[in-house]
Specification:
- The chain has 220 residues and is α/β, with parallel strands linked by helices.
- Helix content is 45%, strand content 13%.
- The longest helix has 22 residues.
């Protein structure tokens, strides 16, 4: 797959006036300063039309490649806090695996910090997104009934913590437009079926709540 940040920088040159965003950066694996610098740069390139989409990740192979072990959720939350404070123009002192900051500041600070959308599969992660993000970035493969249930959790968590309703509710869906449903399925199947079979092999189905699964027929 193409890496998101350089790809979006190229896309921005041909997408004047459009909002672009990362969907998503696995912040747990990344240096928070580099993430904030890249976000600030993309925000400048797009004249403030940038959304920072981040996620925790789930693949053991990826975690091992970046030296991430236990405590991934706590590490994600710490890095997210650092990124948010840097993008707001704050001065940050913090340390962790792979980073040590002493009164760190960004040289390029956005006029308005870009909104942060947090990808989440499990109920616990959805609640984390409600508290730590500006929106929950839902998965394209979440069933509609499951999406409605988790959206209820998301809104209840924000309301219970005194937070205002999210300004946007992004929903990512795989779409194929064709004259009939049967034709759309025929065209999309070779690409989407391979993608979701890979997701199952990587263990994403086990990252979903117990009420959902990717181990089902493609057409369902």
């Amino acid at each position: 797959m193409f890496q998101t940040v350089p790809l979006l920088a190229r896309v921005a040159a041909a997408a004047e006036g459009m909002t672009i965003g990362t969907g998503v950066l696995l912040l747990t694996l990344l240096n928070p300063v580099e993430c904030a610098e890249n976000a600030a740069t993309l925000d400048a390139i797009t004249d403030g039309r940038f959304v920072l989409g981040v996620g925790l990740g789930y693949r053991a192979m990826e975690n091992a490649a970046f030296g991430v072990g236990r405590g991934r959720a706590q590490l994600f939350e710490r890095k997210l806090d650092i990124v948010r404070r840097l993008l707001a123009g704050g001065t940050v002192t913090a340390a962790g695996d792979g980073f040590e900051l002493a009164d760190a500041r960004l040289a390029l600070v956005p006029d308005r910090p870009p909104p942060i959308w947090i990808a989440a599969h499990s109920d616990r992660a959805v609640k984390r997104a409600a508290l730590a993000g500006d929106a929950w970035f839902a998965s394209p493969h979440t069933r509609l009934d499951e999406l409605a249930r988790q959206m209820g959790l998301y809104h209840a968590e924000r309301a219970g913590s005194g937070l205002p309703p999210a300004a946007v509710t992004p929903i990512l869906k795989d779409v194929c437009v064709a004259p009939t449903d049967a034709e759309a399925l025929r065209l999309a199947r070779p690409y989407l079926q391979a993608k979701y079979e890979a997701y199952v092999d990587w263990g994403q189905s086990e990252a979903l709540p117990g009420t959902d699964t990717l181990r089902r027929e493609f057409s369902s």
